[in-house]
């Protein structure tokens, strides 16, 4: 039976962090569903580092169709959750359906993959993050610590059912570890 993976995101998602996991899941034979605040064509972005800048720059990337609205997601239908980064996490965490979605995967001990700014989404369930260990883009270190979790300096970290990655260059290891947990 094919595994079902839910990817939660929104506009301004980092293009690599949504496309790579989505297509990697399809390649693996999994059913991958992209959820967003509403069903629409999502605007993705490319973050990159430019010499002389103190942070990353953002450029427009590709459009990507979402399949389901957060309010219509039945988390029990899915075997794993992936939360890409970019700027999407800063606003999707405000959606009233997101905490219940995220909570389900942790309470049921299903694999969760969180990369880059996804730590901002994990902050909607601080009671479940307390005592965990994970990594994220360095600018999200305060979000991790505010949940009572331990920020890990490494670029890839696995703790219980949570696979976390620092940023898009870590996607190969991130997806390898997520798929490994999903196949257990």
Describe the structure concisely.
With 184 residues, the protein is of the alpha/beta class.
Task: Write up this protein.
It holds the Pfam family DJ-1_PfpI. It comes from Lederbergia citrea. This is DJ-1/PfpI family protein. 30% of the residues lie in helices and 28% in strands. The protein is α/β, with parallel strands linked by helices and 184 residues long. The model has no long low-confidence stretch (mean pLDDT 97). It has 7 helices and 12 strands. It has a 7-stranded mixed β-sheet, sandwiched between helices. The chain has a 3-stranded mixed β-sheet with strand order 2-4-5. A two-stranded parallel sheet has the order 9-10. Helix 6 links the parallel strand 9 and strand 10.
